[in-house]
Design brief:
This protein has 332 residues and is mostly helical. It has two domains: 207 residues, Rossmann fold (3-Layer(aba) Sandwich), CATH 3.40.50.620; 95 residues, Tyrosyl-Transfer RNA Synthetase. Helices cover 55% and strands 7% of the residues. The longest helix is centred in the C-terminal third of the chain and has 30 residues. It binds adenosine monophosphate and tryptophan. Tryptophan binds next to strand 1 and helix 7. The site of adenosine monophosphate has 18 residues, from helix 1.
Length: 332
């Protein structure tokens, strides 16, 4: 039997953080041996906030995210790592799907509402963002999409769009499923454990997130300053949101149960928990940092990986795009 297909992506915006790592990248790494994997730097999603686009910064961010994929341990000889805009089929299928996507479905997306959907001046790309995401996934006949919990709604929309298309034009698209990790799917902000750790907030507020490229000193400082409360209770169910977030992070790093970790530290003061969490984070981030520096030291290596990735991705995506166009009667 052929291996199942996997596709996922991260936007080259803001600062990549341990939420991205624990919710997505680390799980991708674990899939490359058993699945046929495609990991994309979704640069065309990054331009959905056009006023935020700075060409030099975008160019650098695309390369940096690609290098972080590899530095996180995703083997480029096993996975196809590529840049979305290197594969024109994404934009083309996105247009086709846009014509099938009811406006109401898109207006109901949580991310659209949160990012300012009620503002008439906002770019239309913010509304059609999940349609482009659906194209990303459907072009690869993906079976599984490994993502953090916040993306579940977008994968459901992808399935709905695929079913709608298939219903009208025949069995063209394969229906994907989300794959959301048990631990680490929703890491909260260190400075505000009520809000999801976010790449853009990480730029505005240094204490918000642990960046994947932070120095050991920064990691230590940020965890030590993470919001807790004044007690010593680390019993998971009774702990404050800040402590629960630290336990969740710890659990995601070590593979233990957060409640078990909590019991171990209860009544001892948060300093012990934080010190061990710093060590656990450092154990994963130190090799990532070193590999990243090495990769960025010789850009030709990354160029070759992305070039090869673009070739493989185009070859696959064009097959599915042709299938969709043929089914609809588009073209000569
Ligand atoms: P984004 O930062 O929105 O580009 O997300 C890239 C990937 O990281 C997606 O799979 C997200 O679901 C995941 N992700 C983003 N923020 C978090 C978070 N705070 N906790 C866990 N996963 C996250
Ligand atoms: N919307 C995703 C996010 O913000 C990024 C993304 C774009 C993606 N295309 C995708 C994720 C395809 C998985 C599959 O995190």
């Amino acid at each position: 039997m052929s291996r199942q297909r996997v596709l996922s992506g991260v936007q080259p915006t803001g600062i990549l953080h341990i939420g991205n790592y624990l919710g997505a990248l680390r799980n991708w790494r674990g899939m490359v041996d058993d699945y046929d994997t495609f990991f994309c730097v979704v640069d065309m999603h990054a331009i959905t906030v056009p006023e935020a686009v700075d060409p030099a910064r975008l160019r650098e961010a695309i390369r940096s995210v690609a290098a972080i994929y590899i530095a996180a341990g995703i083997d480029p000889d096993k996975a196809t790592i590529f840049v979305q805009s290197d594969v024109p089929a994404h934009a083309e299928l996105a247009w086709i799907l846009t014509c099938m996507a009811p406006m109401g479905w898109l207006k109901r997306m949580t991310q659209f509402k949160v990012k300012g959907g009620d503002n008439e001046g906002v770019g239309t790309g913010l509304l059609t963002y999940p349609v482009l995401q659906a194209a990303d996934i459907l072009l690869y006949d993906a079976d599984l999409v490994p993502v953090g919990a916040d993306q579940k709604q977008h994968i459901e929309l992808t399935r709905d769009l695929a079913e709608r298309f298939n219903h009208r034009f025949g069995d063209v698209f394969h229906l994907p499923k989300p794959m959301i990790p048990k631990q680490g799917a929703r890491i909260m902000g260190l400075d505000d454990p009520e809000a999801k750790m976010s790449k853009s907030t990480a730029v505005e507020r240094p204490g918000h997130a642990i960046g994947l490229l932070d120095t050991p000193k920064q990691v230590k400082k940020k965890i030590n300053r993470a919001k807790t409360d004044s007690g010593t209770c680390t019993i998971y169910e009774d702990a404050s949101p800040g402590i629960r977030n630290l336990l969740g992070m710890f659990a995601a790093f070590t593979g233990e149960d957060p409640a078990e970790i909590g019991k171990r530290y209860d009544g001892r003061g948060y300093g012990y928990l934080k010190a061990d969490l710093i060590a656990a984070a450092e154990a994963e981030l130190a090799p990532l940092r070193a590999r990243y520096e090495e990769l960025r030291g010789d850009e030709s290596v990354l160029d070759a990986i992305l070039e090869r990735g673009a070739e493989r991705a185009n070859a696959q995506a064009n097959v599915v795009l042709a299938r969709a166009k043929q089914a609809m009667g588009l073209g000569r």
